[in-house]
Design a protein that fits this description.
- The structure is a single chain.
- The strands form 4 sheets. Strands 1-2-8-5-3 form a 5-stranded mixed beta sheet.
- A hairpin with a 5-residue loop joins strand 6 (384-385) and strand 7.
- It is of the alpha+beta class.
- The protein has helices at 9-40, 52-74, 95-103, 111-119, 121-131, 134-145, 147-165, 178-194, 203-223, 231-238, 241-266, 278-285, 294-326, 331-345, 349-353, 356-368, 402-406, 422-427, 458-475; strands at residues 79-84, 87-92, 109-110, 174-177, 375-380, 384-385, 391-392, 397-400, 476-479, 489-491, 494-496, 502-507.
- Helix content is 57%, strand content 9%.
Length: 513
Amino acid sequence: MSTHTSLSPVSQALALCAIFLATIFIPKVWQWRSRMMKLNAIPTVGSSGLFSSYISARKFKNHAREIILEGYTKYPGQAFKVPLPDRWEVIVSGREMIEDIKKASDLDLSFVEAITETMQTDYTLGKPARVDTYQVDVVRTPLTRNLGARFEDLRDEIKAAFADEIPAKATEWMKVPMLYTVMKIVSRTSNRYFVGLPLCRDPDYIKLNIEYTIDAFNGAKILQRYPGILKPFIRQFMTNVPNCLKRATGHLESLIRERLEKEKEYGSSDWPDKPNDLISWLLDEAQGERRKDIIYNIVSRVLLVNFAAIHTTSMTFTNALFYLAANPHLAQPLREEIEPIVAEFGWTKSAMGKMHKLDSFLKETQRLSGVGALTMSRLALRDFTFSDGTVVPAGTILSVASFGMHHDDALYEDPYKMKAFRFSDLRSKEGEGLKHQMVGVDPSFALFGGGRHMCPGRFFAVNELKALIGEVLVSYDIKFENGELPEPNWQGASFSPNSFAQVMFKKRTPASA
């Protein structure tokens, strides 16, 4: 009698299913274990347990700055990791590790992929701008190169924007809600350069660009909570990004189509009286295959450039105004530098370059506050080994502890004290004239990142900031009602100036000036 028994069809199917699942999941489990072994070799600030790490991750939301400073102090020049709700983030410090990041290939450490992850850029800032980053070349070259030729437009819009937004009198103090007012002024000034008159003064266009800057950040936070398959639907129905894009198209489409018609009429991208602005520069760069879906491609990139310009410049300008209002004694030495330079060279890009004390003041305010506790974020696309042997596994986001570096007493004397002319004093020494300027490469200053991904718009931003602060100094007296610097807003590692703080303005008379 035969004892052989065959498996039923159901059993066979279950067995095959089990084998199939094993071939999928066992390598993934092994990959996860290998990744965790590498992460476990990096010291943790906070708890590293399976469940206790979530408690530390919740603490990071409100105490990120203190946690990062703890790691920076405890592990100087080394890497450490902190738990976040959805991942581990590796944070590094020290000149050697920062240089390793700067020199790393984009195939190893990707700036674009890190921004894609944190800002959900495919759904907030537009996938085409990530896939083909020609807007970066536009910012780096024509936008920066034309600054001198177009500086008069910037200056004209700054004067008009301040007159409209801060119509202070010489006889009484006027309270101004600072952050939102600054965002309107910066939006107008930047867009005078980007798209020109009259659009730069259109109330809905100004409001749109401010709202888009806020909506992109808020949308990214929402999108991070959902798996990839749901993100297109979440973007459409739970964020304001599609509405912002629709409104921007309404403002910009006719301008873009008019320029395309001119190209067709003259058979060339160079035609008489062609506007020298961001739309033209983007269209010049968008040739060949880049001309597909051209309206969306140009509109999304104009919004993206506005996002970068308005966010960083508004934060920096507001911080500078807060420090100026809290330290009114700084106004006079800054005026004594600005006014003779303007008298000789006018309000020009060349004049801005000669204002070393103003440059130092702006750089010092950003050293003290910045736009966050971390910078130079990268996503490791494959395992990356630092010079000291530290291995960061693929799939990990790593950043530089910029707040710790900017407040390190080994790098800065009295690091928590405002020394407005710290950097101009350094530049006055022999051989140091070109060093320590805000736009320069400074291994102890990380506001604009570093390496090949150093902010391409920093020259435009710094010159615009100098012109903005210069206008405040020559046209107004400012102060806080109580004389105290307002508490900033920290969310995780991100910093923003107090959005409720008011600064008092009074118009300077010719006699007081």
